[in-house]
Specification:
Elements (H helix, E strand, L loop, with lengths): L5 H10 L2 H6 L2 H8 L7 H9 L2 H13 L4 H21 L5 H20 L10 E6 L7 H12 L3 E4 L6 H11 L3 E5 L8 H11 L6 E4 L5 H4 L5 E3 L5 H10 L5 H8 L3
Parallel strand pairs: 1-2, 1-3, 3-4, 4-5
């Protein structure tokens, strides 16, 4: 029998953040997290709102005030994206919001590069692809955008990528991680082939896999596999690798949720 008591309904509402939404809108929650620096604040806010033009305007104002363009990537753009990530993790905003913010941030990064004589340091290179035989690339595009927004160079191989092409890209680019997405159960088995060929060639790079057809048990069957349940897990896994966690077992312990 269903329980529609006041107490049970309150628990359900709280679980799905409805109570939070009544107390504070996403905009109000973001306002609490923005930096107080008068030059950085408008940039962070524009990132949250996904307003590319406002991001550029804020960056130009900061540069005119003497801020270094490359330093602004970490000191302003990354700070704004951190607000977005925090609210996404808390369930206050959702993936479309994150994608808009990521696009605005990428425009900001390009603007900073164009206005600097030096190139920004990146956290590392990551190879992304959609499994051979699979043409569904929305998930991969989201992963690539989030990785770029978090400071990584992405080698995007596209969709329906042959196994040998993935392996060759790893050999050429020496990435800290490989990502693979698959929407169809008939294509996800290409991940096992990629894994085996990487191991055979001594390329023991973490292989983060996800997508509608993929589950944790499947990814755990091969040596390099780390499962990402959501696209937003990709930069978190990459950050853990950069921080020194390269052991596959440790990465699985940290990111496998079931």
């Amino acid at each position: 029998m269903l329980d529609f008591t006041e107490a049970s309904l309150k628990n359900v509402l709280t679980r799905y953040n409805v109570a939070l939404e009544k107390e504070m809108t996403p905009e109000e929650a973001a306002e609490e997290l923005y930096p107080k620096d008068e030059l950085v604040y408008p940039i962070a806010k524009a990132i949250f709102e996904g307003e590319e033009d406002d991001v550029i305007e804020g960056l130009q104002a900061a540069m005119d005030a003497g801020k270094d363009p490359i330093a602004l990537i970490d000191d302003a753009l990354m700070v704004g994206m951190a607000v977005v990530t925090k609210l996404y993790d808390d369930g206050v905003i959702f993936l479309p919001n994150v994608m808009m913010s990521a696009d605005a941030m990428l425009d900001g990064i390009e603007f900073c590069k164009e206005n600097s004589e030096t190139a920004p340091e990146t956290k590392g290179t990551i190879v992304c692809h959609v499994a051979e035989g699979d043409v569904h690339d929305i998930g991969k595009n989201i992963v690539a955008a989030l990785l770029r927004a978090n400071g990584y160079d992405v080698v995007d191989l596209g969709r329906d990528v042959p196994v040998d092409e993935v392996v060759a890209a790893v050999q050429e680019n020496k990435p800290i991680m490989v990502t693979g997405t698959a929407l169809m159960t008939t294509t996800m088995y290409a991940f096992k082939e990629v894994n085996d060929k990487l191991v055979e060639k001594g390329l023991k790079v973490p292989f983060a896999c996800g997508g509608g057809a993929v589950n944790q048990d499947f990814v755990s069957q091969y040596a390099l596999g780390v499962y990402g349940e959501e696209a937003a897990d990709a930069p978190k896994i990459a950050d853990a690798i950069v921080a020194g966690t390269t052991d596959i077992a440790v990465l699985r312990e940290k990111f496998h949720k079931h």
